[in-house]
């Protein structure tokens, strides 16, 4: 586990555990079900945020409650104290996974769009979220992302102005067994969005925390 | 500001700023409005989580999308690397405020139930969330919380088994100008919950990011 060790001995937590106050670990699912987490991984420029936003909108119009948590939003807020070293990426992924777990348990279909290049970090995220975690591999190759370069990052990285850039001087470990693969190279973006939204809807009907209603005569 | 300094120079962020990629800072409000954040502060055992959960349920039944983020859930996940020193409390409050900001921008009425004893940390949280931040003071005094002691923490603290315990060997700075005060000493809990839910509904109609619809003849 790459999870950071506690900074201080947390006596409260021990006390909490002793008194059995686990009621908030799976807190407060006001909708009485927990929603899936769609974890989109892929290179910068692969189309993760675009697909997540598109699928989120499709689902919202159909009454689903959704949220999109993407790398830029995290870097601007929750993870703004973190850089791009392997250790900091691990912590950034950990925080994203904990936010996703909170939202999921509140019945919010959660799209996380984050490069998250390391298999171990994604495995830890899956462990934090539980059975509702779905790994979505946005399979867009380096050459395609580099040609798109929507934020100008590839240019800066190849000029040596950005270090630890995924795909260049920092590795991307593609998922070995993703739950879903979308390719923005071979598919129309609208088709990828529909595929993702369809998958998310399907996943939402298989919440492990909810039993099926009994059929009535 | 008690916000941590970046651990590494974030060249990506600089590059992002240069290319104007601010689109995700206020991302993705699929409901096209941002929901209020109700930030409940008060001593341990004051009733913060109980009131937040109660108000959340009332709102959910009326079609609002809500989430409750409380101290126990944070300590079990997102902030499990943090202790109870002033510095760690500041970071825990910062993370909670960033999660609240993300949820708020996704149209989710967000209840944060966190001791958050220091005025400066709550001021930083207000700054992170913006105009949708509402400080709710759950005004329950030490003697009452100590008598309730639902988690057995007061007993442990007075035995010296917990340090930095708010109200005992760590101060609680009551809000000077809270947006709402609820007292679980003088009010019936149901009345406090109704008061909080009413306030939250009212706040939701005053989202600074939304203009009022034009009246039609």
Automatic annotation (TrEMBL), chains A, B:
Pathway: Sulfur metabolism; hydrogen sulfide biosynthesis; sulfite from sulfate: step 2/3. InterPro entries: APS (IPR002891), APS_kinase_dom (IPR059117), P-loop_NTPase (IPR027417), Sulf_AdTrans/APS_kinase (IPR050512). Pfam families: APS_kinase. GO terms for molecular function: adenylylsulfate kinase activity; ATP binding; sulfate adenylyltransferase (ATP) activity. One of its GO terms (biological process) is hydrogen sulfide biosynthetic process. The keyword 4Fe-4S does not apply. ATP binds at residues 42-49. Its EC number is 2.7.1.25. It catalyses: adenosine 5'-phosphosulfate + ATP = 3'-phosphoadenylyl sulfate + ADP + H(+). Residues 37-182 form the APS kinase domain. Keywords: ATP-binding, Kinase, Nucleotide-binding, Phosphoprotein, Transferase. PANTHER family: SULFATE ADENYLYLTRANSFERASE (PTHR42700). Belongs to the APS kinase family. Catalyzes the synthesis of activated sulfate. This is Adenylyl-sulfate kinase. It comes from Pararobbsia silviterrae. The lineage of its organism: Bacteria, Pseudomonadati, Pseudomonadota, Betaproteobacteria, Burkholderiales.
């Amino acid at each position: 586990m790459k999870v950071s060790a506690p900074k201080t001995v947390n006596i409260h937590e021990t006390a909490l555990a002793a008194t059995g106050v686990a009621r908030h670990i799976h807190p407060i699912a006001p909708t009485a079900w927990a929603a899936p987490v769609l974890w989109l991984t892929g290179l910068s420029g692969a189309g993760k945020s675009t697909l997540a936003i598109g699928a989120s909108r499709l689902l919202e119009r159909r009454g689903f409650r959704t949220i999109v948590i993407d790398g830029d939003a995290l870097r601007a807020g929750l993870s703004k104290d973190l850089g791009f070293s392997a250790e900091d990426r691990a912590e950034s992924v950990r925080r994203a996974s904990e936010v996703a777990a909170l939202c999921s348990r509140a019945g919010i279909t959660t799209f996380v769009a984050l490069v998250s290049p390391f298999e171990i970090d994604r495995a830890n995220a899956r462990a934090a979220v539980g059975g509702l975690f779905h790994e979505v591999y946005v399979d867009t190759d380096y050459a395609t992302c580099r040609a798109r370069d929507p934020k100008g990052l590839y240019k800066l990285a190849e000029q040596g102005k950005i270090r630890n850039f995924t795909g260049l001087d920092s590795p991307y470990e593609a998922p070995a067994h993703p739950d879903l693969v979308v390719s923005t190279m071979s598919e129309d973006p609208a088709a990828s969005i529909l595929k993702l939204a369809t998958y998310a809807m399907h996943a939402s009907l298989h919440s492990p925390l909810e039993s099926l209603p009994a059929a009535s005569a």
